[in-house]
Amino acid sequence: MARTPIYAAGGIVLRGRARPLVAVVQRSKDDTWVLPRGKLKRDENPVAGARREVVEETGHRVRVHEFLGAITYRARGRPKVVQFWRMQAYERPSRDVMKDIIAVDWLPVGQAVRRLSYPLEKLFLQHTGRRVLKHRKHGKRRKTRARAKSKPARRKARPPQAHRRTAKARAHKAATRAGKSGTHVRKARAHTRRSGSHGRKGAVTTAKNPTMLQRVLGRFGG
Predict the structure, then answer these.
(1) pLDDT per residue of the chain (222 residues) written in tens, 0 to 9
(2) CATH number reported for the structural domain that contains residue 118 in this entry
(3) Which residue, of 68, 176, 187, 198, is most buried by count of CB atoms within 10 Å of its CB?
């Protein structure tokens, strides 16, 4: 007759952002190094039980993320199933660790794998640790892209000196145009005066200023 399995839960607990470290704990009963985990209480939700065990064994509050998998083995003749979730620990501990734990170490994934005592846990962390770190990198890239898209493009503000230069340039351009137009007017007037005795425009101009010939003819009643 198959014996009732033992159910346990825990986490691959990360701390830090740039170079995350993984928590491994040393148990007092046999001095072995394991991932933080423990048996579930009767009718306890696995996620809630995993969080409870991790907080008790590491002293850090955590945020629980995706399910990573499970390992199974026999313990005292009974099958044991241990489920793991990815967790992010707060930087500072919030409580003392339970008395069954004599040490907590935060190590890079490679060193954490070597520190673990059981080959099955070594293999599990070796594979899931790579996946967890890759997932974190992709998550950061997605967040960075989303933030970049959500931010409206900002127009670069011109420095005050640039505004002053632009205003001066516009004033100079306007003055240049005004000067050119004044020059054209003066040239036109000069041309008109020079052409007073030549052509049609000269005839019109001389109507207001009689010539010497007209004055002589006027004396003779012509």
Answers:
(1) 568 999 999 999 999 878 899 999 999 999 999 999 999 999 999 999 999 999 999 999 999 999 999 999 999 889 999 999 999 999 888 889 999 999 999 999 999 999 999 999 999 999 998 778 776 665 555 655 656 566 655 655 555 565 556 666 776 676 666 665 555 545 545 554 554 444 444 433 334 455 554 554 455 454
(2) 3.90.79.10
(3) 68
List the domain range (segments joined by +) for residue 62: 6-144
Q: Is residue 80 part of a domain?
A: yes
**Is residue 42 domain-resident?**
yes
Domains contained in the chain, number:
1
* The three-state (H, E, C) secondary structure of 117-142, written as one string: CCHHHHHHHHHHHHHHHHHHHHHHHH
